[in-house]
Amino acid sequence: MSISRRQFIKAGGAALTMGVLPYGTLRIARAASQPRTREISLVAAPGKMSLDGRESFSAWLYNGQPGGPEIRITEGEVLRVKLTNELPKPTTIHWHGVPVPNAMDGVPGVTQKAVAPGASFIYEFKAQPAGSYIYHSHQGLQLDQGLAGSLIIEPRSDPNPPDREYTLLLEDWAATDGGGPNASRRRPPMGGMMGLGMMGRGMRGRGMMGRRGMRGSGPPLEPIYDGYTVGGRAYPGIKPLMVKKGDRVRLRLCNASAITVYDLMLAGHKLTITHADANPVNPIETEVLRIAPGERYDVEFIANNPGRWLLMANESGYGESGLKVPVLYEGVRPGEAAPPVFRRGLRFVRYWDLVRPEPKPLEKGKGQGRFYRQVLSGGMHSSFWTINGYVYPQAEVLAAPLGERVRLSYLNRSPMPHPMHLHGHFFRVANPNLPQELWISKDTVIVEHMERVDIEFVADNPGRWIHHCHNLYHMEAGMANLVEVKA
Ligand code: C2O
Ligand code: CU
């Protein structure tokens, strides 16, 4: 695999050279510069999932594979995916983070009609820019049933390739009672954060306990997550990540979980963040990495501490999550791996610590720009989650004239963090500590409790785009609206 990759990089270099040749070679040059198309087939169908020896439960999977097949493609190639729907329900695929043309974005009722059971649909778009992405169903709660995978767009040439690279697709599973959205419920709607007395008053009887929310007037409530996988496998049944002393190892962390925000630590090593949501950042070391649903981070570590170690996650705010992956040095006998210690006062990198490696001034945009305040609420006296008080689809449509600069200013007045995600665009995360040209680009940003976070982007991708919290249950309970980019 690494050989064919090297060959392809060589071919890419040749095409580049041909581009500057004189007219006589135009025919060849054109053929060479014609982007290669990669065809992939994804079949969404019911399947079985089992978490390392535990009773299996039903899941919906792509190509029968928990964690989905990983899609790898080189930047600039065309990705053509035939989705075949063998589910009993309509479905779609969303290419999370990739700024695809609107019609390829895979949001039912917004960018396409959902693909009916038995039908198929072809997605086709240019794979760019390079980076770590996720693909997942955007229909209802299907992501939570297992319909997700990783999409890696490799750069045409990597100036600084690591010695080893692993993709870690993180997923949370509700494995009891048949699994998925039908599993037993988490105490609504705030998990372990509050007593029942307060809940009782707040919920006014609507979908208060158990599953009533599914059928009653309220939105579906979160199930109880009791299983965690990396690439579809749960600890201890997961293969250790093998490293050799001296290796520089890259991990592509992609959080495809429905609701879980992880605080990740690797015992015996420090992680250096190099990319956030496919965009490069100035490499920065961190003891703990917080990653929310929809976020991706590329991190690296130097294998300079031979032994057996655990990469492990706490669930932000709840303690140990159960997400674990052993890291094993070559030549070290397999066995119990040392866990990291989540002691108090660990150093945490926040967005404000991340700096763009190459300064890039904000694009001016035409017109005088748009400013939208986005107040995030819910969780207290309602089982709905809202933006500016609206419950999607009865929600605002934010007008973003083509070419204008748009600022969304989030204020989170709810008790939970919200990973807010915008389709079709990367945005800059406004950082009061840095000059604008150093603000990083992302497509998903956590807004913590009582925090204000501003993002800015130029509306350069025409169409109606959904903008929502990537906690699947918050989205399904209304925390979404639309951004409409038109000339
Ligand atoms: Cu991961 Cu609306 O998307
Ligand atoms: Cu949310």
Can you give me a brief rundown of this structure?
The protein is mostly beta strands and 487 residues long. The chain has helices spanning 2-18, 26-33, 142-145, 196-203, 212-215, 472-476; strands spanning 37-49, 57-62, 71-74, 78-85, 94-96, 120-126, 131-136, 148-154, 164-173, 227-230, 241-243, 248-255, 262-266, 271-276, 279-286, 289-291, 296-302, 308-315, 319-329, 366-378, 385-387, 397-401, 404-412, 418-422, 427-429, 441-442, 444-447, 452-458, 463-469, 480-486.
Could you list some keywords that capture this structure?
single chain; 487 residues; mainly beta; six-stranded mixed sheet; 30 strands; 9% helix; globular; disordered N terminus; binds CU-O-CU linkage; binds copper (II) ion
What percent of residues adopt helix (DSSP H or I)? under 10%
Ligands in the model, by name, code or SMILES, are: CU-O-CU linkage, copper (II) ion
Structural class: mainly beta
Count of discrete alpha- or pi-helical segments spanning 4 or more residues: 6
Q: Characterize the main sheet.
A: 6 strands, mixed
Kindly, what is the distance between the CA atoms of the first and last residues, rounded to a whole number of angstroms?
45 Å
Please state the CA-atom Rg, rounded to the nearest Å. 22 Å
Strand order of the largest sheet: 10-9-12-17-14-15
Low-confidence stretches: 1-31, 187-216
State which percent range the strand residues make up.
35-45%
Outline type: globular
Q: Let me know the number of strands.
A: 30
Mean pLDDT: 87
Walk me through this protein's architecture:
By secondary structure, the protein is mainly beta. It is built from six helices and 30 strands. The protein has helices at residues 2-18, 26-33, 142-145, 196-203, 212-215, 472-476, and strands spanning 37-49, 57-62, 71-74, 78-85, 94-96, 120-126, 131-136, 148-154, 164-173, 227-230, 241-243, 248-255, 262-266, 271-276, 279-286, 289-291, 296-302, 308-315, 319-329, 366-378, 385-387, 397-401, 404-412, 418-422, 427-429, 441-442, 444-447, 452-458, 463-469, 480-486. The protein has a six-stranded mixed beta sheet with strand order 10-9-12-17-14-15, with no helix packed on it. Strands 21-20-23-28-25-26 form a six-stranded mixed beta sheet, with no helix packed on it. Strands 11-19-18-13-16 form a five-stranded mixed beta sheet, with no helix packed on it. β20 and β21 form a beta hairpin. The site of CU-O-CU linkage (C2O) has 10 residues, from β5 and β29.
